[in-house]
Design brief:
Layout: H1 5-21, H2 23-33, H3 38-53, H4 62-76, H5 81-96, H6 104-122, H7 132-147, H8 152-166
Helix pairs in contact: 1-3, 1-4, 2-3, 3-4, 4-5, 5-6, 6-7, 6-8, 7-8
């Protein structure tokens, strides 16, 4: 099973719902190490993304959705988060290219590109106690799953399981 435009739009909506659900928690965590605006900033960014989803032209691809997320987050999310997440999504969109559907290997490549964008923009490496510590095992698990012939959904599940183990 590949990940097509319907999946990408649905995943984006569910991501926005998750950000909204955890907005207060993200803000509380950010108060401990920063200025306490992370939950509000991400909520504002994903609210803007959702407002633009229905304007995607016919024939859009998962890569187009990822690019829409990237450009919207960069322009609406303040602080370091906008450029950080925006770079991740922009690199992911480039990896997805114009593919109508993402198979297992392409899904793993999209995840690797997103992680590499986070590393490049944030200058973080595994062990720095950042999100890269969860992204790296997720990308490694995704690549292993793809290499074993897993479909896109199984690649995502392997990545999620590996990231959650870090939690």
């Amino acid at each position: 099973m590949g990940l097509d435009i319907t999946w990408a739009v649905d995943w984006t909506r569910r991501s926005a719902d998750t950000v909204t659900e955890h907005r207060a928690e993200l803000t509380t965590l950010d108060r401990e190490i920063g200025d306490g605006d992370h939950g509000e900033n991400l909520h504002r960014g994903f609210t803007a993304v959702i407002a633009k989803l229905d304007d995607l032209p016919a024939g859009s691809t998962p890569g187009d959705v990822l690019k829409l997320i990237a450009t919207t987050l960069i322009s609406t999310v303040g602080g370091a988060a906008g450029p950080l997440y925006g770079t991740a999504y922009l690199r992911a969109s480039t990896a997805a290219g114009s593919a109508v559907s993402l198979d297992g290997p392409l899904t793993a490549a999209v995840l690797a590109a997103a992680r590499d964008g986070i590393v490049a923009r944030g200058r973080a490496e595994p062990g720095d106690k950042t999100m890269v510590d969860a992204w790296t095992p997720a990308v490694d698990a995704a690549a292993a799953a793809a290499d074993s012939g897993a479909d896109a959904a199984a690649v995502l599940a392997a990545a999620a399981d590996a990231a959650e183990e870090i939690g």
